């Protein structure tokens, strides 16, 4: 069965918009979809991704999950973008079909948009199976060129590989012998079995490479050297050696022409250069690898990132061994990746090789006949090479006398930075510098991104390999300090969430001076306040269990200054008030009786009451305002040595609980609403009945009942009436809202249903507020002041004859006049009360 799932990806109408279409799949169907991808963002992250991959090859690395996170994140983003719902369904069905048939699914990407060719598709990560696609399934990049299916080339072993090492003197020096030894060791097994023949050429000049290609046949060309991407021409390049020994940058189109001189043309090219797999952004074929495939090369394996020696050796070993055993080139690339995964442990460099193919077939060679013995291969190769190109028996071509740059004695040696002329930097040392630099860049990036734990681990790895590297020690210490602060802040947040206020306050205190945590100081203060509330509530419960009611009220008043809603936990403060009031009434009874016998009617007596028990004497810590209304002491109940109270003595006890100023303004608003409204009604009833509407009577009543009256009740609530409990706030809130609805609904020609309903709601909430006032103020006049105008409000709907009004506007609204007059009187009463409370409040504060 056909085991390819081939996906064609093309650009959409705007940057970042793309379409994907399933060309063919084992499960059948032609699913398609569209997706968006932040290609610019991924391109910006490629240097960091390369540093992460290269740094993972360091043997001392201990942070594989940290390093892999960047690779997995990019791979998952690409996977979820590419495999839309329909496409993913086809992929999963195709994967199951191939597994059921005992075969392997191959993923083929047709990248028609140039910028997509720059994406690291080899990192595709399936979150459903927790696997990278290229580790379990062959993944190839199909170059859209005129398709043709080359027949596999019949090769009588050995498979001939031409190795070219180009090390110009003005570029970072390559250890040529080490590079050759690496590939020779990788192919030692197939060479010893006679399945592979590796021939190296000593120089990398254009003329010498051309001579070697003419002396073929060569099945594979393996290039080791430098490569890059030229953004000016938007084209990939590799560096050959010029006539003067310096770099001669060869564009992809020129390298394509050079390889075409070979007969037959090599079916496979491996570019082991630092950027040979990099693509341009506007021309899909500008990359070296893609350009070679377009020219007719069957497949090109290239490195999209810099690669370490160990990874290059491992990939070459697995890749060429699979080719020599007759495997397809895509399967050989997957085998090469698996070889990289084994050395060193935890490396991520298996993402570095990228495979580009042309046509539908990936079977490049068919090996015919048994492998020749090693001795026979060496003899034949040496004889043919010596006759054609002057190659020695050991497999290294001997340069001709006139070849420029081929005489090592006349060729200048590279001068490394910081070294001396004639000394080449060993390849291993160059790679070590690159790896240290990659670790440094990655650690600095994690520090800047405030991922402090990862930064500390990376700096520790760097300093393990190279103690004293640049400023890594200072940056590591900075990252460690930032990590400690971050952990303290994180733990403080967790403690705050769990209600452990002390631990949270300590944690926020540790970071409050750091500008990175601007909210720490405010959070610390809030946690300290909540801890104080918790402590006081515990103290209140303790005193309540002992029956120390005055102390309970004292603690409740202190709680009210921190949080009014926390001043009465479990109703203990309310119970303490009731017990205190009951005890005072019992104590006051005999004293009140004796006072009646000796004092003149209507005046106070100077006879002192017995001293109350010690438990009943308040012991305030500080002069705090009362959270609730104090209970007025009965007439004639005086402490020993206390002067006879004046007429304002009860008000002195109320001053700590009721704010006189809001009460005064509230009374003013109620008096104003009632007085002005009554004046308009009198004018309507006895002076100008026919001009009521023209004179704005209904507008005035709307304003007085709908705005001024609710404002008056709001100020009364702020003053502390009927008390400061939540129930009292709800009751007065209901009065205000229903009063506003009643007034604004309109008192016009006809009765509005909303106004009628609202008036009865005013009565209900007013009755509730009055009951609460009776309970809190011991049946004082405050309760009647709150109760009367609200409970009697529905009477305005009745005429003097008692018939429910249908058009109250045209009737004699005596009931309305009565209610407005009552409202005005209540407002005046509140004003008088506030006037008496003012000196009493001043007395309690002194």
Question: What does this 3D model show about the protein?
Answer:
With 846 residues, this protein is an alpha/beta fold. The chain folds into five domains: 4-137, no CATH class; 153-389, Rossmann fold; 430-498; 545-645, no CATH class; 660-845, no CATH class. It is built from 26 helices and 18 strands. It has an eleven-stranded mixed sheet, sandwiched between helices. The protein has a three-stranded antiparallel sheet with strand order 12-13-14. It has a two-stranded antiparallel sheet with strand order 5-6. Strand 15, helix 9 and strand 16 (299-303) form a beta-alpha-beta unit. Helix 21 runs antiparallel to helix 26 (814-845) and helix 24 (753-777) packs antiparallel against helix 25. The longest helix has 32 residues, at 814-845. The radius of gyration is 47 Å and the shape is elongated.
């Amino acid at each position: 069965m056909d085991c390819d799932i081939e996906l064609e990806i093309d650009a959409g109408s705007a940057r970042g918009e793309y379409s994907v279409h399933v060309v063919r799949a084992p499960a059948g169907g032609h699913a398609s979809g569209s997706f968006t991808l932040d290609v610019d963002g991924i391109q910006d992250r490629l240097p960091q991704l390369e540093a992460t991959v290269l740094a993972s090859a360091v043997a001392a690395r201990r942070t594989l999950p940290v390093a892999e996170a960047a690779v997995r994140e990019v791979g998952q983003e690409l996977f979820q973008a590419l495999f839309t719902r329909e496409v993913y369904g086809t992929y999963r069905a195709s994967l199951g079909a191939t597994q059921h048939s005992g075969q392997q699914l191959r993923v083929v990407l047709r990248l028609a948009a140039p910028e997509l060719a720059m994406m690291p598709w080899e990192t595709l990560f399936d979150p459903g199976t927790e696997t990278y696609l290229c580790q379990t399934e062959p993944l190839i990049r199909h170059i859209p060129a005129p398709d043709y299916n080359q027949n596999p080339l019949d090769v009588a072993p050995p498979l001939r590989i031409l190795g070219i090492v180009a090390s110009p003197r003005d570029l970072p020096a390559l250890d040529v012998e080490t590079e050759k030894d690496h590939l020779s060791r990788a192919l030692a097994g197939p060479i010893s079995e006679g399945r592979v023949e590796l021939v190296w050429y000593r120089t990398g000049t254009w003329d010498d490479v051309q001579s070697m290609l003419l002396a073929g046949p060569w099945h594979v060309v393996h290039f080791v050297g430098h490569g890059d991407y030229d953004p000016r021409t938007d084209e990939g390049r590799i560096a050959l050696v010029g006539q003067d020994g310096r770099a001669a940058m060869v564009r992809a189109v020129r390298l394509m022409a050079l390889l075409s001189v070979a007969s037959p043309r090599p079916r496979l090219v491996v570019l082991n250069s630092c950027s040979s797999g990099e693509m341009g952004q506007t021309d899909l074929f500008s990359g070296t690898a893609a350009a070679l495939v377009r020219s007719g090369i069957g497949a090109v394996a290239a490195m999209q990132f810099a690669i370490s020696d160990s990874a290059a050796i491992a990939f070459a070993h697995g890749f060429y061994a699979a080719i020599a055993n007759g495997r397809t080139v895509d399967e050989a690339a997957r085998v090469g990746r698996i070889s990289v995964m084994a050395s060193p442990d935890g490396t991520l460099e298996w993402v570095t090789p990228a495979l580009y193919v042309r046509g539908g077939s990936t079977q490049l060679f068919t090996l015919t006949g048994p492998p020749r013995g090693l001795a026979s291969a060496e003899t034949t190769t040496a004889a043919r090479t010596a006759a054609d190109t002057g190659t020695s028996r050991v497999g290294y071509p001997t340069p001709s006398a006139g070849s420029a740059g081929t005489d090592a004695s006349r060729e200048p040696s590279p001068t490394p930075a910081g070294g001396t002329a004639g000394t080449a930097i060993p390849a291993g040392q160059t790679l070590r510098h690159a790896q240290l630099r990659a670790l440094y860049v990655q650690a600095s990036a994690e520090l800047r991104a405030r991922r402090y734990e990862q930064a500390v681990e990376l700096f520790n790895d760097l300093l393990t390999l190279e103690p004293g590297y640049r400023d890594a020690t200072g940056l590591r210490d900075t990252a460690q300090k930032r990590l400690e602060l971050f952990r303290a802040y994180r733990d403080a947040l967790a403690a705050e969430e769990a209600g452990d206020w002390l631990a949270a306050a300590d944690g926020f205190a540790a970071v409050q001076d750091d500008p990175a945590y601007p909210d720490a100081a405010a959070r610390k203060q809030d946690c300290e306040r909540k801890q104080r509330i918790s402590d006081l509530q515990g103290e209140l419960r303790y005193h309540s269990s002992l029956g120390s009611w005055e102390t309970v009220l004292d603690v409740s008043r202190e709680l009210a200054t921190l949080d009014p809603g926390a001043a009465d936990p479990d109703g203990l403060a309310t119970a303490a008030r009731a017990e205190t009031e009951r005890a005072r009434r019992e104590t006051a009874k005999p004293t009140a009786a004796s006072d009646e016998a000796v004092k003149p009617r209507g005046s106070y007596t100077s006879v002192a009451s017995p001293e109350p028990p010690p438990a009943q004497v308040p012991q305030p810590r500080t002069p705090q305002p009362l959270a609730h209304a104090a209970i007025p002491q009965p007439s004639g109940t005086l402490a020993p040595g206390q002067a006879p109270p004046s007429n304002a003595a009860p008000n002195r006890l109320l001053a700590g609980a009721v704010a006189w100023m809001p009460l005064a303004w509230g009374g003013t608003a109620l008096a104003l609403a009632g007085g002005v409204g009554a004046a308009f009604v009198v004018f309507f009833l006895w002076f100008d009945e026919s001009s009521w509407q023209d004179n704005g009577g209904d507008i005035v009543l709307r304003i007085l009942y709908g705005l001024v009256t609710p404002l008056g009740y709001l100020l009364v609530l702020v003053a502390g009436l009927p008390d400061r409990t939540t129930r009292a706030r709800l009751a007065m809130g209901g009065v205000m809202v229903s009063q506003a609805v009643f007034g604004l609904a309109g008192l016009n020609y006809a009765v509005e249903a909303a106004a009628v309903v609202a008036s009865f709601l005013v009565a209900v909430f007013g009755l509730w507020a009055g009951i609460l006032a009776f309970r809190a103020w011991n049946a004082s006049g405050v309760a009647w002041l709150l109760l009367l105008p609200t409970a009697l409000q529905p009477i305005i709907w009745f005429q003097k004859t008692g018939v429910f009004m249908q058009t109250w506007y045209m009737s004699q609204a005596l009931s309305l006049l009565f209610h407005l007059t009552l409202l005005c009187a209540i407002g005046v009463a509140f004003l008088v009360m506030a006037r008496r409370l003012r000196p009493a409040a001043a007395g309690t504060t002194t």
